[in-house]
Write a structure and sequence with these properties.
174 residues; Jelly Rolls; 12 strands; 0% helix
Length: 174
């Protein structure tokens, strides 16, 4: 197994916005993988968040056995996404965990992003941060994807997420 999809972004009804700073959650007709994506906007809502994003808490990942146990800290977490502009974006974060209070998170800086084009960027699985007790590897129902902004009052339309997956970082031997 060279890759593993962590969540389905082809049905926006499976996702919930993180706060009222994320608005207009909808289905987008296509994504980088071709079959559709979710779309949302960052708005200056009353929650005063510096991010816009979505989450779900009904996943059933188990990193202790099977396919997921084959991934190590040198392998990659990949996000396929689209943003209309980069002017006020600081980074993109993916969270996986037992809940929103106990998780691992991976952040991709805006320096590698390109505006107005579909892209896939990655980060090593070992380059993670931890919130609370981190994730319990045998039970990972929670995932969130956030686009982080320079300030809470920033706004952006057309944020699209197509895919979050793991990929083996196969070393080359010469």
């Amino acid at each position: 197994m060279q890759f593993y999809d962590l969540a389905d972004f082809r049905d926006y009804t499976k996702w919930t916005v993180l706060s009222n700073d994320t608005v207009n959650l909808a289905q987008y007709a296509y994504g980088l993988s071709g079959a559709g994506a979710i779309e949302f906007d960052k708005y200056n809502g009353t929650n005063d968040k510096t991010y816009a994003g979505v989450y779900r808490s009904d996943l059933a990942h188990d990193f202790t056995g099977g396919v997921l146990s084959q991934f190590c800290s040198e392998d990659r977490l990949v996000v396929s996404f689209y943003v209309g502009a980069l002017t006020d974006i600081a980074s993109l974060t993916v969270e996986l965990g037992t809940s929103a209070s106990h998780l691992h998170y991976w952040t991709i800086a805006d320096t590698g992003m390109t505006a107005s084009t579909w892209q896939s960027l990655s980060v090593k699985l070992g380059a993670r941060g931890i919130t609370g007790n981190g994730m319990t590897p045998g039970s990972v129902p929670y995932m969130a994807v956030k686009v982080n902004f320079d300030a809470q009052d920033k706004a952006l339309e057309d944020i699209r997420i197509d895919r979050v997956y793991l990929v083996k970082n196969t070393p080359t031997v010469s």
